[in-house]
Please model this.
Amino acid sequence: CAKDLNLKPTNDVTSDVVYATPAGYKGALAKVYGSFAQTGNSGAGSGDLGGIDAGTSDFFRLYFGAQELSTDEAVCAWLGDPGVSEIDQMTWSSTNLMLQGLYTRSIYQITLVNEFIRESTDAKLASRNITGNDAAEIKYYIAEARFLRAFQYWVLMDLYGNPPFITENDNIGKELPKQTTRAALFSYVESELKAVETLLKDPRTNEYGRADKAAAWALLARLYLNAQVYTGSERNADAITYANKVIGAGYTLHSQYKNLFLADNNVNNPETIFAIAYDGVKTQNYGGATYLINAAINAAMNPTSFGVPNGGWGGNRTRQNLPNKFTDASGATDKRAMFFGDKRNVDDLATFTDGLAVTKFKNITQSGATAPSVGGTFCSMDIPLFRLAEAYMIYAEATLRGGNGGSLATATSYFNNLRTRAYGNASGNVASISLNDILDERSREFYWEGQRRTDLVRFGKYTDASYLWPYKGGVKAGRGVETYRNLFPIPSTDIIANPNLKQNTGY
Amino acid sequence: GFAFAQSGSISGTVLDTKRESLPGVSVTVDGTTVGTATDMNGAFKLNSVSAGTHTITAKYIGYTTLIKTVTVTAGQTTNVEFLLTAESQSLNEVVVIGYGTQQKKELTGSITSISSKDFQKGTITSPEQLINGKLPGVQIVSGGGQPGAGSEIRIRAGASLNASNAPLIVVDNVPLNNESIPGVANPLTLINPNDIENFTVLKDANATAIYGSRASNGVILITTKKGGSGKPQINVTSQNSIATVARKVNNLSAAEVRDYVNANGTQAQKDLLGDANTDWQKEIFRNAFTTDNNVSVTGKKANTPYRLNIGYLNQDGILMRDNMNRVSGALTLSPKFLDNHLKIDLNLKGSYSRSTFANQGAIGSAIMFDPTQAVNAENKYGNYFEWTSGDVPNPNAPRNPVALIEQRDDKGRAARSFGNLQVDYTLPFLPELRANVNLGYDISRGQGTTVIPDFAAQNYATKGLRSRYMNDINNKVLEFFLAYKKDFKSINSNLDAIAGYGYYDNKRTNFAYASYQFDGTTAISNPVFPYDIPRSRLLSYYGRAIYTYAGKYILSGTVRTDGSSRFSPENRNRWGVFPSGAFTWRISEEPMLKSSNVLSDLKLRLSYGVTGQQDIGSLYSYLPNYAKSSNESQYQFGNEFYYMYAPLAYDKDIKWETTATSNIGLDFGFLNGRLAGKLDVFYKKTKDLLAVVNIPVGSNFSNQLLTNVGNMENKGVELELNGSIIKSKKLNWDMGFNFTYLQNKVTNLTLVDNPNYFQQAGSITGATGNFIQVHTAGKAPFSYYVYKQVYGTDGKPLEGVYEDLNGDGSITASDRYFYKSPAPKFLMGFSTSLNYQRWTLATVLRASLGNYMYDNVSSNLATRSNLLNPAGSINNAPVEFLNSGFTINQYNSDYFIRNASFLKMDNLSLSYNIGRYNFSANVQNVFVVSKYKGVDPEIFNGIDYTLYPRPRIYTLGVNVGF
Model:
């Protein structure tokens, strides 16, 4: 009779069932990847995480908040949403919900990777009779999972510095993860990426959406470029080495800059190395591309022309600094200037039309068709995390910073490659470049792609009074803020839940 | 023939001392088999009584049995009237307790009960409302004015945070599983209130611990009406009522909106104004008619008392299109065999309801929709005015409230049947021992459909909607117990003991269907699995012994051990043991008091016990499972989309939460029960509290987990007073008063000790992801967590200016503080009835003090940015806007936390009784006195947003007995 108490769910299954077949492994891998494209497992309203609105708990939505809304490039009007006002004005504390959400999302993906690796040991594969090609393919899965884990640890290192550290050797339960340091994490991310760079598939040979060697190289290049910030020692020569590997991997610039950010950017795209894949029907979510596109426009901007006939949330727009980076912000000369509106200055944070809207991202295809989407809101554009253009810029910057192995002439030509594409001809090309040019060019090339805060920190301009934007530091004219804000705080919820953690200096 | 000539008849009535008729009284002719029971009007007739002098006995539970001598003349009818006196505060009244009964005077637990004659009157379609305000320690808050809306029921404030706080409800010994049935607003409405005879509420651990792991939040025992004892008595009742809107949200008029926009808006906004003058709340609400009719037959055929009731209810809601109708049937058979050694009780209840659910989104829309717009306009959205952007409805504007209702067809139906067969056998060779088997079931099916046309603005984006749902519930109960009861005269003792076994199986089948566009062929979403069957089981062993010495010292002990399928068998968490003990001293039986003419009853009760909670919301949270993603949550590799297998957060060590309750009670009665009452003081401490808390990030497959953490304590005082102020043949005046003081506090909520820890609780409407309530140590659950508003010299709140409580020079989320909670400190109920001859006037008042409310209507809508919506519409705002004048929303200001203490008159009724007829007139929700300015100060979770207003209801009723 007591056996009657052993009941099992109808549709959920145990790990033994999931991992019994190669197809099951791929389903588990889909979650490892999908956890940064989606907020949950059962549609747009579902959430893997607690304590935060499901739609808000999306990786790129939160990453955009930390990396863009806190900078000169973007500002959000939704002051009623938890944490937004503090991010807009650089006044966050350790209780900020958006920063807590991003930290949690990144570590969540790491726990999924760890679980996947635990279930993919040689012994487990053998016990499940998975051999031959199937086993070989799963080896690639493991390498890709490790790449994703390295990526999220890089995010945590870049934003939070000293997060908790867990690997496949830490079991699930109530044990307290130990804290790591930024420097130790740098070594770990570097060693993991170097370990998997040989295990991953060759560039451009994997299925779309999955990481290959070039993705690992691109992250290594980015890691080395910022090494001074992370460890106190520059690694510009290594940045050049890995930028070169990416540049030599067979990617080319997309002929049209604007086509990088359309609903069909997953096809015929020679430039993007690794992207988060979204789909308006099969990968629905209120973050990611759906957020990026809808929050950037309002009802007055004809949402239908952006492929979201029932969208337009009117939240994010630029501060004047971004359009001011363009000599002509109309888009007539530098076609990367994709703005809408007539008021550049942000006088009121809560007014969407204070500041120019950004029209860079659209849920329509190159042929002008609206991508299929449930309800006319969800988007299918994929968000590039690494594209060739960045490798060019890393090469140029690392060279200017004195990295061995780079040539200034090559650096200038890479720089001009981007400008030639932007102008459609050589009229925008320059004869020489400075580090300041690099920072501004990065702004024009990568605005709203989630790179800005890292760039400003590297250039010492994130907290400094020498470079201001409206409402930086909570005042309309802008002001410098404490240097400790170059790092975000460890969320107070985790400081409380995990006594192993020590708060970052200043918070 | 011969017999007729030799016999006559006796007819008469049985009344109580207030001259109110007593139905169901057994009237028998001593020494014969002639007997009957009184009808609804207290009347009886005994035919074929042989001529001569007879002794007639009128017997009724709770009343002193009365014997009269009557002389019958052949061929004639003799009239006789019985006036039964209620026994001293019904001290001998039998009260149901778990798995048995006990005389009221010997109760050891904190138990309070109420029978049908004291129920709330009027149009009541859900059983729990019958006892609202009538019992101390019991809080019942309806979800609103929707037909058949459900209620939150709390006994002694509940002992859990994330586990269920609802009491266990047991109907005729069948524990109901507390789950929703789609297709009906509230599963309890599938029980016809007319079938209910008695509610008994078990509160302290001595009373509840016999229900073990389901008892932490109290137990409500419902006894339904049973068969009679003679010829069939037919009773017909009909109640007909009109419900009206008692109060609407006070928002700006069309003229005020027009003036404001003209003075403050841009030209584009001024151009949006219309010429109409529409009261949108008036457009969507209406006066609503309800008819509730019941026919019952009770009697006894051979050895079988029976009762059959058929009910028909048809209730309109005050929100347009809302309707529920319900047909219900109840059959009770209670035959006795083998010289009464074998008793069988068969209870069968069934009901079938059909509901039309109005789109309640219209309530919020009506509050904020521009009053300068007309309802209708010529357009492609079914000719209802709508805000548009380009060619489509503006997604950031409210929808036309009337269209929301008229263009959504949402129909549900639910069938439920529950009942039990109870066989009770007294052993002929050992009459002290009984064996009892109880087989119960509760099955239901709820289903429904929603259809929205493709031109409707509300679902324009998805080209309309066709969806359906269906759920089956199949719960089974098997119980077996042995009961032993014996007087040991030699040692002046009495022992009453039971030992039993229980098996409970709860199974639910949730079917999943695709939803389609209005065309019925284009799918909007497809389920991955065709159905899901959540299921849980409980196995139990239980026992109780009550030992009474000299009729005045009573010791009682219970123990129950439960095994639950929700917990792991691999550790020792699956089984829990829940004991209780109590001592009762009937002080008034002591020689020095026994002869007192003033004090008629005095009893001291002491009890302690441990109960549990296993209804943790989750069925399999100890298992490390993977979930397969839905069709909407796949991930793309190459050109293929793959379902995601996600590992779920789990806690293999999850177990019961346990609540220890101490109770001291005093029962008292004066002047032979004319003034009687009860005083209880209790202290409840819950440990291993089941709560969703933040766990160290990275330690599990989420950042939050339902786990056993922390403690909560709960203390209170309850007082119940009942008195007959005037008691005479013609004039009677009764009063009842109850008082509850409650204090509920979380005392620890962290796996590691930290005073700064809090857990988000109540989320609010407005912006995205805002919450206003938290759980934290040292405060009541659901305490508000807000910024401290700073006010200007004019007394108005300064927008966005808050006190820098942590003194760091800037206002961040760290400056919020804990302030008040929705939980009332004091609850009071007052009932009185004044009877003069055939007339009775009665009322019920209820008060709640110290409960605070978050005015979410004002915080979300009383802003300039709402009125002058930058997204392209003009919206209306509550008049609160004229006071605060906020430009943008200040959701987390304590300005919106308002005192919502209230006094309500629930019920005022007048009835007139003439022979077999009883006429009544009744008003419900008569008035509300409160400082709170919103629609209703009584909202359970303390967050006021677009409540379905509770209507004022005027009812006329008639009751005829044959």
Summary: Chain A has a mean pLDDT of 96. The longest strand of chain A covers residues 272-276. The radius of gyration of chain A is 22 Å. The beta strands of chain A are 13-14, 75-76, 164-165, 178-179, 272-276, 316-317, 339-340, 357-358, 383-387.
